[in-house]
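Slides due. Your pick:
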Amino acid sequence: MSVLRIERVLKRFGEKTAVNELSLEVEQGEIYGLLGGNGAGKTTTMRMVLGLIYPDAGKIEYNGKKYSDGLLSRMGYLPEERGLYPKFKVSDQILYLAELKGMSRSAADKSLKQWLEKFGVPEYYGKRVEELSKGNQQKIQFIASVVHDPDIMILDEAFSGLDPVNVELLKTTVKELRAEGKTILFSSHQMAHVEELCQNICILHRSETVLQGSLREIKNSYPKERILLETTHPVMGLEYIAGVSAVSDQNGLYEIKITDVAAGAEILKLALAQTVVNRFQIMEPTLTEIFIKKVGDGE
């Protein structure tokens, strides 16, 4: 049984349809990617999952049961719009939020200190939020969403505002939470993060589901249109091979656009006849390329 199940959910605001008959299932120990441009319906979906707003039609179930007030304490939410109060101390806010989720103050205090140690910032315990950098504020907001050890987590743009080192820190943490059996609904505009973390995805566009399923199966359903070729010396004549549509040369690293994957064999044959080949790779389509094909590069 899926931990989170959304079945033909519909949500309208006046005459505008925000989410139109969305269905998806998230298993225990899974990070499910919810993608889409601005206004696609992602945030509305997340708010319905949290019980902050209710669908006009369809149903949302948690371990086969409907939403209940007690469920809220078992959920963690990291919103895209940051919500911590800048003038208040980190400890005062996090402990208060954890108590609202049903934790005792002593248990919340212990959990907060453990998370601050994990992120290497124990000195932030008594600081005001406004004293922290944007990236460190984001880490504190993440801690607020996990301090009470939730079973279901909603992460909306979790890595926003973080430098590469802290992105890796939070990605590692999210993977650890998955390994602990947490069920995670994850949204990001950074497609590389989705590719790394998610097994299944759903792409929304203007309230509609335009693509859904296993990321691996989705990628396999799209043609391979690029080849990377790295050689020690220049290769002549690549553009004349049948099935090659464009060739870009960057100091011995060729990116070759193809219309037929069979062209790969001829490309490799020609390159080996002229020089040493250090790299030859037929590239699968990236999630970014698939996203653009489905919703348009305007997004």
Remarks:
- The chain has two domains: 4-219, 223-283.
- The two ends are 35 Å apart (CA to CA).
- The first strand starts at residue 4 and ends at 13.
